[in-house]
Design goal:
466 residues, 9-stranded mixed beta sheet, 2 domains, Rossmann fold, 16 strands, alpha/beta, Dihydrodipicolinate Reductase, domain 2, 33% helix, 7-stranded mixed beta sheet
Length: 466
Amino acid sequence: MGKKDVIAPQANKMSRRNFLTTSAVAAAAFAVVPRHVLGGPGYVAPSDRINIACIGVQGKGHSDIRDVSPGNNIVALCDCDETKIASLYKRAKESDPIWYEQLKKARVYSDWRIMLKHQKDIDAVTVSTPDHTHAPAAMWALKRGKHCFVQKPLTHTVYEARALAEAAKEAKVKTQMGNQGHSKEGARLINEWIWDGAIGDVTEVYCWTNRPIWPQNIPQPKEIPSVPLSLNWNSWVGAAPWRHYHPAYHPFAWRGWLDFGSGALGDMGAHIFDHPYWALNLKDAATVQASCSKYNDQTFPMSSMITYTFPARENMPACKLTWLDGGLQAPRPEELEPGRKLGDGGGGMLFIGTKGKLMAGTYGSSPRIIPETKMKEYVRPAKTIPRSPGIHEEWVAAIKENKETTSSFEYAGRLTETMLLGNIAMRMNKSNQILQWDGPNLRFTNSEEATALVTKEYRKGFELDG
């Protein structure tokens, strides 16, 4: 344990001094104390209040912390950039002073490994970091018996998705991926209508997004600027191969870099790809092929078209799913009335069945059979899928009431595995090869080069084994 690892329990004002503590002070702070002592006279059983540690506090991290806080204890906050902690406090103080006071009681860290190794009162963990840190942080938590909520995409590689699903099953904890559209009404309507036969047998699906909205197809910077004093750069790089700090990576610009992000597909696939995956009971793809715009060996391309094929499933026929990003979009169906938007401003999906077509926006919002005359004629079936209180609320209730979540690592792991096959195909774009996938064995039967991309190497100290 060293500098930039632990921040002492918060004073009213954050400073460089209280952000960095020596290893001696940090070690003293974490003598093992029984939980009933930590809780004191007002200790509440874990079944009533969950002790939650949050890794990553800005962007989706902020909303994750906010949405899991009610009725629970935020006992630890971790972010490698102290300015993000300060921003969280500022926003909390302005929006909800009571929540702000709760957050101030949490221990603060800049290295999630130190937090998970030494703080013993944690029941559950949220992970809202760049993609490359999702699996290592979640795996370390699972190995210690913590319930886990991980932002989308669940993992950075196909192998990690399988590994997390298996680890979660072994740990017997409650898990959830943060693809909030999965909990919305639109997702359930799409399923119920398709299962009702509203558009017949679905044989083809298009999914598209307006992403990327960040830089891609750019060269690796040659400049080596100074690391900001507020930033624990070693912790930020984490499991990825070491490289020098540059603002081209942090903050936010990491999504386009192969070592850190998952591109447009990783960012929005869990929100859009999710709906046909669920509604059509998809499992392992049979094949995947990509066609991309020009790109380099450091970043994702500015646009891509990725085609998956799936075998027949039970009473559903074989189907093809095409993913489009970077300004590409599904062909406009002739059934769609002039002047009417296909999907929404952020993207959408189009299901093509033997008896009709159904479209929806990003997150599965506003599903409609097209044309609208058919939508009005359609007699909707009974609502058979339980409605969700929300993606975070589901997870909290699952922990407290021993319920199941709908985007658990079992489901989200399979979805992420399939989704990220597209990124492997994209990296194999130069060959324009149709890759044949053997899901049970996590390998491509016709490409050793592609199979090598199913997993990756981990920098020492950030290995996946926890």
